[in-house]
Structures are given as structure tokens and as C-alpha cells.
Amino acid sequence: MPAYFGAFENLTLAVFSSVLPKLPGKLEASWDGVRELNWRMEDALQHPKIQKTQEEINVLMGLPRNAIFQPPKREEELFVFHPGCDAPVPSFTRPTVVDEDGDEGHEFFVEDPETGDLVSHGPTALEDGKDGDSGCWYVVLHKPAVVLRAKASVKAEMVGRKKTGKSMRVQKVVDGRWVQLHSEELPRLGVTEAWAPIDGAEMGLPGQPLLQKM
Q1: What is the pLDDT of residues 99-121, one digit of tens each?
Q2: Which of 140, 142, 137 shows the shortest CA–CA distance to 171?
Q3: 149 has which bridge partners?
Q4: pLDDT tens across 70-97, in order?
């Protein structure tokens, strides 16, 4: 039964994914988009004609006539379906290193023969880099918000906003003027790359920091 419903959900989402972006408002091709559609349909389903059409759809799908389709809850989503194969691929916030055995990691530990304790040994990627900026968090200082851009330029396309007091995880700092958002920040923006300015001079506000490292 779980396998059946898992396959049913994947098939259903595949159909929704092709339809949702074409609807007014261009809903997101995901379970969030399905939830938004259900919320918008609550009032419409009070109309007898709409109810009848929904019942006919249920019958065609092999469901009970009065069935109510409920997308999985957020906490139940272990995997997010991306029919367009456009999901962001998460990566480490810091580059890995390789030891003498060819193993890859951020840091390596070996057992001390005298004490039996594990101690750091060999190359490490966990020390602060040149700018100390790998895999860190910044908080927005600028009011009312900081504009997120597709590239590290004020002329680049706007891809979102971060309000004052909100934090963001970054993976790279460029010249102390721009931060590149970590891949974990990108799904909610629906983009593959996003940047935020640190220096107010980028926006004609010299001497005013827009972000602060946490």
C-alpha cells in the first residue's frame, strides 16, 4: 500500500507540475503549488457545478467520488520531486581535502597511541580561509531589506529580497563587497544562483554596511 500511494503521488505531481505554471498566478510546480491551488479552490468548491466536476475527476482517477486529495505534509517530504531535472545540487560549504590514503573529507582524526584519544591529523579544510568566509552566516542590517541578485552586480536581475534582521547562509565572499548564497538558500528562491551586497557603496550608500557576519 505505501508503495502504491508513493507511485500515485509521483504520478499526480507530474501532472500538476505541467499544469500549475500555466494557471493564473503561475503556481509553483511542486507540492507547495498544489497546496496553494487547494487553498484557492476552497471557495470555488462550494459551487455545485465545481463540486460535480471534481467528483467526475475523482472517478476518472479511480478514486471515491467524494475523495479529497491532500498533498503530503511538509515534515513528511524526504524527497522533493523536480520533473524538470532543475533541482539545485547541494554542496559542501567548504572544499574538501585528501589525505595520504586518498580519502576525502574536511578533517581527519587518528587515535593517539599513548592516550587513545582521537586527534586531528593531516590536512584540514576547517581552518578559516583567507577571508574567513567559508560556510558562514550573515544578518541583514539594511532597512527595509536587501535585494538579492542573479549575479554580483547591482545591474543583475533581482531574484528575491531579505528583510532586516533575517539571516542568510553564504558560501563565498567576493572582495568584501558581495556574498554568494549557499545552495540551501536557493530552493525557496527558485534560482540556481543568488548574491547579496555587503558594502553599502554598491547601492550608493558609502560607509553603510548592508550585512553583518554572525
Answers
A1: 878 888 878 888 888 888 887 77
A2: 137
A3: 158, 195
A4: 776 665 555 666 777 776 666 666 667 7
CB-CB contact of 71 with 38 (8 Å): yes
CA distances from 95 to 105, 134, 183, 189 (A): 9, 9, 14, 24
| E strand spans, the chain | 97-98, 104-105, 109-111, 118-120, 136-140, 145-149, 158-163, 167-174, 178-181, 195-197, 211-213
Q: What is the pLDDT of residues 157-200, one digit of tens each?
A: 889 989 999 988 888 888 778 888 888 888 888 888 999 998 88
Give the phi and the psi of residue 209 in degrees, each rounded to 5. -70, 135
Look at residue 126 and tell me whether its pLDDT is greater than 70.
Answer: no
Domains of the chain in start order, with CATH, are 2-76 (no CATH), 88-127 (no CATH), 136-213 (2.30.30.40)
Which pLDDT does position 77 carry in this prediction?
53
b/e for 91-116, b at 16 or more Cβ within 10 A? eebbeebeeeeeeebebbeeeeeeee
Residues 1-9: what's their mean pLDDT?
A: 78
- Residue 144 sits at the vertex; the CA angle it makes with 141 and 145, to the nearest 5 degrees, is 65
